[in-house]
Request: fold
Amino acid sequence: MTALLEVRDLRVAFGAAAAVDGVSFTVAPGETLGLVGESGCGKSTTALALMRLLHGAVTGGSAHFDGRDLLALDRPAMRGVRGAEIAMIFQDPGTALHPLIRVGEQVTEAIRAHQAVSAAVARARALDLFRQVGIATPELRLRAYPHQLSGGMCQRVMIAAAIACSPRLLLADEPTTALDVTVQAQILELLQTISRATGMAVILITHDLGVVAGMADRVAVMYAGRIVEMAPTAALFAAPAHPYTRGLLGAVPRLDQGWDDELPIIPGSVATAIAASGCRFAPRCPRADRSCRATPPLAPVAEGHLAACWHSG
Ligand SMILES: Nc1ncnc2c1ncn2[C@@H]1O[C@H](COP(=O)(O)OP(=O)(O)O)[C@@H](O)[C@H]1O
Ligand SMILES: [Mg+2]
Reply:
């Protein structure tokens, strides 16, 4: 299948620190790719780089979207892509909404910025979107300012704004973190419905493996700026090949564990991603040995299943 997005060797550096260090993946039309990993591994940075919102921190790579390299587009062309063809739900809804503009107007503006429709049509569309994302009394909420809404409600407004123009690719960065479990399920179902109906591709960024299990077709696991494993979702959960993924799966709370039980954890924390050579997970890895001083390539361990570990397979 032809990819809608093909990211190759993406590199982002904040000063000396490589936040994203040679990331490559593809997303097909209609596909949901889960991007998972602990906080600080470079998930948001990857998405922001694709949206060209990092102002010069991108140091290499390409990101072909429908044939055009997003990283090489001029600003006007990128403005045309952003919002209309690629939309993003930001991790922090508090900073993404304008505090002094009514939320309904913000969604209406998002629609009219990219579609030649009347104010009345845009407003009707916004109302419909508010209903779809589960906002009660949407007529009333359209007139609210962000500070009058809860964090979860702001998140839903953001989701409405993101899907307003029927983008072909949605970058959803922890889209449901601020929401309670019921609403979370509703929103994920909504995204899935839209994806199925319109062929919208989704990059679903989350630290929550439960979310990708229900939503993603494929999963890419990131660690310290690199993808360490990538596989169809069922294969990843059934046969995780990288010790880091195995650790993450071990750290998922099971239904038979009470809230008071301690969760198994991976000892240590994400290493500061300063150009260390070799496998970055090695300091925390139960299987590490001398061979891990050389960087393991992301290599096939099964059909469609890649892992970057000398000891997998
Ligand atoms: N604007 C920035 N300036 C400097 N460092 C940053 C900036 N944004 C992110 N980082 C660093 O880049 C790394 C990856 O961050 P991020 O992409 O936010 O991780 P994630 O989304 O996976 O939690 C972290 O070490 C973080 O501290
Ligand atoms: Mg993040």
Residues 19 and 83 are 25 Å apart (CA to CA).
